[in-house]
Write a structure and sequence with these properties.
- The protein has 5 helices and 7 strands; from the N terminus they run βαααβββαβαββ.
- The chain has one domain: 3-Layer(aba) Sandwich (Aminopeptidase).
- It is α+β, with helices and mostly antiparallel strands.
- α2 (about 25-45) crosses α3 (about 55-70).
- The chain has a 7-stranded mixed sheet with strand order 1-2-3-4-5-7-6, with helices on both faces.
- It has helices at about 20, 25-45, 55-70, 120-135, 150-160, and strands at about 15, 75-85, 85-95, 105-110, 140-145, 160-175, 175-185.
């Protein structure tokens, strides 16, 4: 974990990969429950994370199990962000399964607890996941986001992602309709 400042609070999140998380039994034991709490709170507040209703503990545990299995197979990266040993965010990418798409991956989720929005957690997670993708030989990292998620879209653009498509009014949340925006980071352009 990062050292604390003189006031006792860390100024930047500590971002662990799956190996780092697994090497700390206490953090690993609390990870699924803490991740569930973050995801359920965000979705309950209207966040665009792929669920209309907050996911159940079992849904989150199954999702994380799938991601961890993919990490172990070399087909994913998982990152967890902490302030003072408290999970405040998580993100992951998954390699595409189709043989013709194997050099590419999709940034599936970056979720940051509402209490720490604006403190660099999303940027730290996404930057680490981009580095993981480069190291894994990913050629193109893609993502999609709901069009009204201005903060996330701004973050992705600031990290080099470019928009490559849009489906107008594609995402349905009750009677509301939102655009679905597609972004990509093409590592082939940058060597």
């Amino acid at each position: 974990m990062k050292p604390a400042t003189t006031s006792g609070a860390t100024t930047e999140p500590t971002v662990l990969d799956a190996t780092g998380l697994a090497s700390d039994p206490e953090l690993e034991a609390r990870f699924a429950e803490s991740a569930h709490r973050i995801l359920a709170d965000l979705v309950g507040g209207g966040a665009a994370l792929g669920w209309v209703e907050p996911p159940s503990r079992d849904e989150v545990a199954e999702l994380l199990g799938h991601v961890v299995s993919a990490v172990q197979a070399g087909d994913a990266a998982l990152r967890a962000a902490y302030f003072d040993r408290r999970l405040v965010g998580l993100g992951y990418w998954l390699r595409y399964a189709r043989p013709t798409h194997r050099p590419h991956a999709d940034l599936e989720k970056v979720a940051v607890a509402a209490a720490v929005h604006g403190r660099g957690v999303g940027r730290a997670l996404t930057t680490a996941l981009i580095a993981d993708a480069r190291e894994a030989g990913i050629e193109v990292l893609t993502l999609d986001a709901r069009g009204d998620n201005a903060h996330a879209l701004s973050l992705y653009r600031s990290l080099g992602f470019t928009e490559y498509g849009l489906l107008p009014r594609f995402v349905a949340v009750g009677e509301q309709r939102y655009d679905k925006v597609f972004y990509m980071l093409d590592f082939r352009q940058y060597g």
